[in-house]
Structure formats: structure tokens, C-alpha cells
Write a structure and sequence with these properties.
Blueprint: E1 6-9, H1 16-19, E2 24-26, H2 34-37, E3 43-48, E4 54-60, E5 66-72, H3 81-98, E6 103-108, E7 117-122, E8 125-130, H4 133-137, H5 139-150, E9 154-159, H6 162-166, E10 172-177, E11 184-188, E12 191-195, H7 210-217, E13 224-228, H8 234-241, E14 246-251, H9 254-266, E15 273-277, H10 280-289, E16 294-299, H11 311-326, E17 329-339, H12 346-359, E18 364-370, E19 389-395
Parallel strand pairs: 1-3, 8-9, 13-14, 13-16, 14-15, 16-17
Antiparallel strand pairs: 2-5, 3-4, 4-5, 6-7, 7-8, 9-10, 11-12, 17-19, 18-19
Helix pairs in contact: 3-5, 7-8, 11-12
Bound molecules: S-adenosyl-L-homocysteine.
Length: 396
């Protein structure tokens, strides 16, 4: 081995999962001696097997349960801008094949070989989210490699999610290149949307639902549509473009609704689009009391299950959402429900939706059970990273 990187050693037998192709090594699988504990969070290390042979190069964080995230099985490979450029280029070529316009998730962490790192592309603006200490430490060469590959006019480095907290990282939001003035336009299956990426108001866009928005829109012809947790109009405006009679976007964020309204005008559907700033469950209770119904209801809430401990409470919230939304669907109409909770398995989500539907005194049938669009690929050994579940039902 020719490199002089720090080394961490696997416990005897600690390499079982890694030898099967798993990209993570947990702290209890490593010899966490004083040398390992003293390493900087995010250092690139060579992982050594108990028998002294090298396993590969990894990001290391002594403070995280996921202590090492493998970058390559080639222990001698330099982890530098060239390495990152190759990974980015592979991810880029895949997206160019998958998606017809330059608006997509360019890097989806482990599945694209850059562990703990997400990159979203908005045409000539790129947003980097380093969610693990290793990615955070390499952000400069990553930005340089992105700059070389795409020559964007602006690069934003941003992140404030729970993943950063678990890695001991503070929230960040800064411009690594260029300037931003106002909202950025993006496109999805012919629809135009707006996202505000400006410093201090990190919002962005949820590309994972791109294909589901089109799927739900197939049921929008002549429909009165309710888009709950609408954010900046993703589901509702795609439905409006596909022949909906009326679309109501409901969200508690007025800033998100303002962008939805501007995007409605960009798509020429402003006259049939309305927004309402409200808490979703309160809106549903009131709409129920007023016997207000719709032909197509979509609800794509934030994660109700934020950690394993609120699994039961979150499950009940999905059931309640299913019950209240099902009650607002006209006979023969359609209901789209999604869960982006990592800790909510697809089968449990389906079970809660089924119970909610029944509690609403309704029946129906599942037409589609889907997940995230393919620019959010899944590492084959990390099925839990397939966080997005969605069901499209017809309701009797
Ligand atoms: N469906 C959207 C993404 C939704 S993200 C899309 O297709 O892009 C979740 C949204 O729910 C955010 O816009 C947030 O402002 C909103 N939200 C969170 N809690 C809410 C609540 N209790 N009531 C209404 N909206 C809420």
C-alpha cells in the first residue's frame, strides 16, 4: 500500500457486512482505540481488515454511529478532485440519459458513490448538500469538480437537516460561486416551476416526486383538485396543465404559496389556480364540516416519522391523514398519498392508509404504489434509503 493515510482497523469478524458489499461500517465493527478516536471527523482513512489486508478507502467520523462510509475498494486510490470528478461525471451521464432537461438530483449520496452527499441541479445553478462529515470536509474539491464538469453560474453549499446533526455538523448555507438574484426557474415534464435558493432562505425543490406529479396528473382531466402540503405547486400545477377544472394549493408556508402562484402564471393556468395558507389538518377538518369535496386529492406531507421512536405516533398521523383526505374525495375520485419518512416501511404505510380509508367509511383500490424518481437511485445494500413511498387510489 503506497498511501500515507490514517488507518482504522476492523474488529475480527467486523468485516462481514463490508465483504458482502455494504458501504457502511458501524463504530462497533471497528477498533475504536485512542488513535481512531483522535482522527478528525470526516478524515479519509484506509480501512484495514483484522488480518492486516486493506479493505478500501472511506470517510471516517469517530462521533457517528456510521463510523466509516466506503468510497472505493481500491485502498490506494487518491480521494481528490479527480476522483470526485469521475464520480460526478458518471452520475451526470446517467441523469442525461434519464431526464430530458437539466433539472434533477445529480448526486444521491451512497448510490452515486459520493457517500453522505447530495447535489441538486437547477440548470446553471447547483446546490451541494454535504450531509456527512467526510463530504463536508471535501466540499472545496467537490465544488471545484462540479465547476469543471458543469461550469454553473452559481454553486450553493447548503444543509440543515437531521443527518448533519447526527454527524456533529452545524447548519450551513453559503454561495461557493457566483450570485443569486430571486427565484430560479426549473422544468419537469413540460411544467415550469420556481425555487428560491437564495442565501438565508434555503428551500429548493423536491425532484423525487417529479414522476409522481405526472402520474397523479393523469387523473386530473375535468377534476376539482386539492393539493395539500403543496409547497410551490409541484403536484397541483402539473394537474392544472393536464386539464384540471380547478386547483387549490394548501400549505402553511406563504412564501411557498407565493412561488406556486407565480409558477401558475408561467404555465398559463393562473385563472383556475387558488392558494390557501393553512395548517393541513385544520383545513381538512373545516373542509369536512363544510362538506367540501374534490375529484382528486394529493397529500405529500413532511416526514411524520422523524426518528424510530415516533414510529407509532407517525403511523397514526398517516392514518389520520388518509381518513381525512379520503373523506374529501368524491365517489369514484382519486387520492394520492405519500410518505417521505425513512422510518416508515412501505408495507406499514400501506396498512395505515388502508385503515384510514376504512375509518372514513370508504373503500377503494390501489392503482399505483411508487417511490422516488430514478435520479434518486438506491444503493442495493441500503434499501432503507428508498425513503419515499406513494400510493394512488381510487375511492368509492
Ligand atoms: N408536495 C410538495 C412538497 C411538500 S414538502 C411538492 O410536491 O413539492 C412539505 C410541505 O408541507 C412544505 O411546503 C411545508 O411548508 C408544508 N407543511 C409542513 N407542515 C405543514 C402543516 N402542518 N400544514 C400545512 N403545510 C405544512
Amino acid at each position: 500500500m503506497s498511501n500515507d493515510r490514517a488507518r482504522v482497523k476492523l474488529q475480527p469478524g467486523g468485516d462481514k457486512r463490508a465483504m458482502l458489499g455494504h458501504p457502511w461500517i458501524f463504530s462497533n465493527e471497528l477498533v475504536m482505540d485512542s488513535g481512531a478516536k483522535a482522527l478528525e471527523p470526516g478524515a479519509v482513512v484506509t480501512v484495514m481488515r483484522a488480518d492486516g489486508r486493506p479493505l478500501g478507502a472511506a470517510f471516517f467520523n469517530p462521533h457517528s454511529l456510521i463510523a466509516a462510509r466506503l468510497l472505493t475498494r481500491d485502498a490506494d486510490r487518491a480521494i481528490d478532485e479527480t476522483f470526485l470528478h469521475r464520480r460526478l461525471e458518471r452520475a451526470f451521464k446517467l441523469r442525461e440519459r434519464l431526464i430530458g432537461a437539466p433539472y434533477y438530483r445529480l448526486v444521491h449520496a451512497e448510490a452515486d458513490g459520493i457517500p453522505g452527499c447530495v447535489v441538486d441541479r437547477f440548470g446553471d445553478v447547483v446546490v451541494v448538500e454535504p450531509n456527512a462529515a467526510g463530504a463536508d470536509r471535501l466540499v472545496e474539491p467537490l465544488v471545484a469538480a462540479l465547476d469543471r464538469l458543469l461550469k454553473p453560474r452559481a454553486i450553493v453549499v447548503s444543509g440543515d437537516g437531521p443527518a448533519r446533526t447526527l454527524e456533529g455538523l452545524p447548519p450551513i448555507h453559503r454561495l461557493a460561486k457566483g450570485t443569486l438574484d430571486g427565484a430560479i426557474e426549473l422544468q419537469e415534464h413540460g411544467a415550469r416551476f420556481l425555487a428560491d435558493l437564495a442565501e438565508g432562505q434555503k428551500t429548493g425543490w423536491f425532484y423525487d416526486q417529479r414522476d409522481n406529479r405526472l402520474l397523479a396528473a393523469r387523473f386530473a382531466q375535468d377534476a376539482d383538485v386539492l393539493d395539500l402540503y403543496s409547497y410551490s405547486g409541484g403536484f397541483g400545477l402539473q394537474a392544472a396543465r393536464h386539464g384540471a377544472k380547478s386547483v387549490l394549493s394548501v400549505d402553511r408556508s406563504q412564501a411557498a404559496l407565493d412561488l406556486a402562484r407565480r409558477a401558475a402564471a408561467l404555465n398559463g393556468v393562473a385563472e383556475k389556480h387558488a392558494t390557501e395558507s393553512a395548517e393541513a389538518f385544520e383545513f381538512l377538518e373545516q373542509a369536512g364540516a363544510a362538506h367540501r369535496t374534490f375529484d382528486l386529492v394529493m397529500a405529500d406531507p413532511p416526514a411524520f416519522v422523524k426518528s424510530r421512536k415516533d414510529f407509532h405516533q407517525g403511523g397514526r398521523a398517516y392514518r389520520k391523514l388518509a381518513r381525512l383526505t379520503a373523506g374529501r374525495v368524491r365517489t369514484g375520485g382519486f387520492l394520492f398519498l405519500a410518505s417521505c419518512s425513512h422510518h416508515m416501511p412501505a408495507e406499514e404505510f400501506r396498512a395505515q392508509v388502508a385503515r384510514g380509508l376504512h375509518e372514513a367509511g370508504r373503500s377503494g383500490r390501489i392503482l399505483h404504489a411508487t417511490g422516488a424518481a430514478p435520479d434518486h437511485p438506491v444503493h442495493p445494500m441500503l434499501p432503507e434509503s428508498a425513503y419515499l413511498k406513494a400510493l394512488l387510489l381510487q375511492v368509492d
